[in-house]
Amino acid sequence: MHHVFIYGTLKKGQPNHSLINNTTIGQAEFLAHVRTIERYTLMIATKNNYPFLLNVPGKGKRVHGEIYSVDQKMLDFLDDFEECPELYQRTKVQLEVQDVDGEGENTLKPGRIEEAFVYSTNTYEPEWLLKPTYDNYDTNGDHGLPYHEDTSPE
Ligand code: PCA
């Protein structure tokens, strides 16, 4: 099994979360709410308003999200879904466990440091660095940039 940090549209309550719970794709188990140890630039870009985590040294915020344990099938699916490595790259991130929500039986305890995969990107446009940054992504936040998939042909 693999640990994956989810900070964007795959989180609970966000538009792609049902994919994580789709057992015809693969297995995924929620482990805990977490936040990154380091600061990252979490911003919204592209015409589809995708959230991106950028590693810009010395900038950004400690980003909140969820850690899941996923099987190889789900990881392969997520690589495909996130257009990895063209759009996002799967890298590793250090996380601090916040709370486990009483769900699942797992060994993660608040305060523990965990490492997980994350879909971040290092192939961004310079002007992305001028955009607002967030510590907790919500498609319906007051930024007014809801996530949407392409609806019209290119
Ligand atoms: N999906 C992944 C990366 C960004 C996105 O929208 C996630 O939720 O973590």
Task: Write structural notes for this entry.
With 154 residues, this protein is mostly beta strands. The protein has a single domain, classed as Roll (Hypothetical upf0131 protein ytfp). It contains two helices and six strands. A hairpin with a 4-residue loop joins strand 2 and strand 3. It is globular, with a radius of gyration of 15 Å.
Number of strands: 6
What's the CATH class label? Alpha Beta
Fourth CATH level, the homologous superfamily = Gamma-glutamyl cyclotransferase-like
Give the names of the bound compounds.
Answer: pyroglutamic acid
| Oligomer class | single chain
Q: Spans with pLDDT under 50 lasting ≥5 residues?
A: none
Distance linking N and C termini? 38 Å
Which class do the helix and strand fractions yield?
Answer: mainly beta
Coarse morphology: globular
Portion in beta strands: 35-45%
Give the helix proportion (percent range): under 10%
Question: What is the string of SSEs from the N terminus onward?
Answer: EHEEEHEE
Q: Judging by the overall fold, what is the CATH architecture? A: Roll
State the domain count.
1
The DSSP helix count reads 2
Largest sheet: 5 strands, mixed, barrel
Radius of gyration: 15 Å
Spatial arrangement of strands, main beta sheet = 1-4-2-5-6
For the residues shown, what is the average pLDDT? 93
Q: Write the CATH fold name.
A: Hypothetical upf0131 protein ytfp
In short:
This protein is mainly β and about 150 residues long. The chain has one domain: Gamma-glutamyl cyclotransferase-like (Hypothetical upf0131 protein ytfp, Roll), CATH 3.10.490.10.
